[in-house]
Amino acid sequence: MGPPGAGWQGISADSDEEDEDVPPAEEPGDPQDVCSQRRNNLGFWLLGLCNNFAYVVMLSAAHDILSHQKVPAGNGTKPTPPSANDSRYDCNAVSTGAVLLADILPTLLIKFSAPFCIHLFPYGLRVAICVITAWSSFILVAFSRTTAQSMTGVVLASISSGLGEITFLALTSFFNSSVVSAWSSGTGGAGLIGALSYLGLTQAGLSPQHTLLVMTVIPVIMQASYCFLLAPPPQAPRCGWGPSIQKSLRSSSVTHQPLLGGNNTPQNTPETQTPQLTLQEKGQVVKGILKYLIPLAVVYFAEYFINQGLFELLYFRKAPFSHSQQYRWYQMLYQAGVFISRSSAACIRIRQIWLLAALQCLNMVFLVIAVNYMFLPSIYLVFVLIIYEGLLGGASYVNTFHSVSAESQPEHREFAMGVACVADTLGISLSGAIAIPVHDYFCRLP
Predict the structure, then answer these.
(1) How far is the CA of 198 from the CAs of 54, 64, 189, 192, 211, in angstroms?
(2) How far apart are the first and last CA of the chain?
(3) Three-class secondary structure assignment of the chain
(4) C-alpha span between 426 and 283 (Å, rounded)
(5) Phi/psi at 406 (nearest 5 deg)?
(6) Which of 185-194, 215-224, 271-280, 370-379 shows the lowest per-residue confidence on average (mean pLDDT)?
(7) Cβ(138)–Cβ(111) under 8 Å?
(8) What residues contact residue 328 under an 8 Å CB cut-off, 6+ apart?
(9) Beta partners for 28?
(10) Does domain 32-268+277-444 have CATH number 1.20.1250.20?
């Protein structure tokens, strides 16, 4: 479960700024250049994967986190006995929506505050913070003894993901624009690989605690990819603390490329400066893309309400899986659907995002009714519905950003993409807040 945060880092240079220190963009064709480009594509793919990995794993492990990582004997290969409470549902004391809020609110705060202060910190320091917070999140959750400690670990994972999203998307401005596609593919792969690896390792016999400890290698791969795999051009920051603030600002202003560009030519050379948008212009840009942002927020609200408000309650006692295993399968199948549809933009383009929002809301209403009346005959029917849910969510995501990019004027595109990335985060945050009382309501039912 991760959304893009482009648009905070572009800083235009003054019209009289010289660019003699910045070498011209290299033309492809030289074998060394081709090799460097492949390294960069792989590097950004791994950075995208590692950046969203902890976020996805924390959502997949939400049920185990709230159970304090306790699983039945035999690692839950047999169905868990009925709950000791009086509810018809096998409920945790706290909704998994609480894990969602802990996993998304820090990211939302970072996205809102980044425009004002992110440029003060060099890239090397930002990457180091991402690595340390991601590694600490796995350790803290693995060894936690209370829900509060577990939630603190989830918050650290959110900080790492939110800061990393802004940092690495900004870093793409120093490279050939093809690395943006590699980054996006990596973040999509994180959803599937993260959920599948957590499910696979626990199914293989590892406890949730040992599974989280194994995953501490992921932040190490992130640091290694940044320092050793990338082949940055001369004007890009190097591994370490990066260039001075002034040089970093100047370099980013001169060489910043659009997220969805298709060539190697730097975007903001002195001849093609992007003007600073006025408040009125920003308002007009937001107004023009609301037709995409509102449906996107609705889609993400509905699907994350399902994921963190209803998944735990969709428990089949006669299924050949324990409650924890059922929850992990739900998360993995959802991420599989998202990955498939996010990769479908080259084949299918959908401009009617509102239609996807309507279908996702119908999906949510149906599953709420199913939880209330418990009429679904088989868990395998739920598996199909969850894959369908993921397909709707992934399609709305990729088609929204394609539409926003295509319809935005070049001088507005960076700001529009930055605004668009907040819509899904707002929808997710609202769903987490509502999922908690809904969970409590169902768990009080006799």
Answers:
(1) 11, 11, 14, 10, 7
(2) 33
(3) CCCCCCCCCCCCCCCCCCCCCCCCCCCECEHHHHHHHHHHHHHHHHHHHHHHHHHHHHHHCHHHHHCCCCCCHHHHCCCCCCCCCCCCCCCCCCCCHHHHHHHHHHHHHHHHHHHHHHHHCCHHHHHHHHHHHHHHHHHHHHCCCCHHHHHHHHHHHHHHHHHHHHHHHHHHHHCCCHHHHHHHHHHHHHHHHHHHHHHHHHHCCCCHHHHHHHCCHHHHHHHHHHHHHCCCCCCCCCCCCCCCHHHHHHHHHHHCCCCCCCCCCCCCCHHHCCCCCCHHHHHHHHHHHHHHHHHHHHHHHHHHHHHHHHHHHCCCCCCCCCHHHHHHHHHHHHHHHHHHHHCCCCCCCCCCHHHHHHHHHHHHHHHHHHHHHCCCCCHHHHHHHHHHHHHHHHHHHHHHHHHHHHHCCHHHHHHHHHHHHHHHHHHHHHHHHHHHHHHHHHHHCC
(4) 18
(5) -70, -35
(6) 271-280
(7) no
(8) 60, 63, 195, 198, 199, 202
(9) 30
(10) yes
In the numeric block, the tokens 């600490």 are attached to 136
d(Cα 282, Cα 288) in Å, to the nearest integer? Answer: 10
Quick check: 81 pLDDT over 70?
no
Q: Is 365 exposed, middle or buried (0-12, 13-18, 19+ CB in 10 A)?
A: exposed
Predicted confidence (pLDDT) per residue in 211-265, tens digit:
999 999 999 999 999 999 988 877 666 665 444 334 444 444 433 444 334 444 4
7's torsion region: left (phi>0), alpha (psi -120 to 50) or beta? left
pTM of the predicted structure, to 2 decimals: 0.68
Q: What is the token pair recorded at 39? A: 């390294």
For residue 131 the two structure tokens come to 């690595």
Phi-psi group of 58: left, alpha or beta (phi > 0 → left; psi -120 to 50 → alpha; rest → beta): alpha
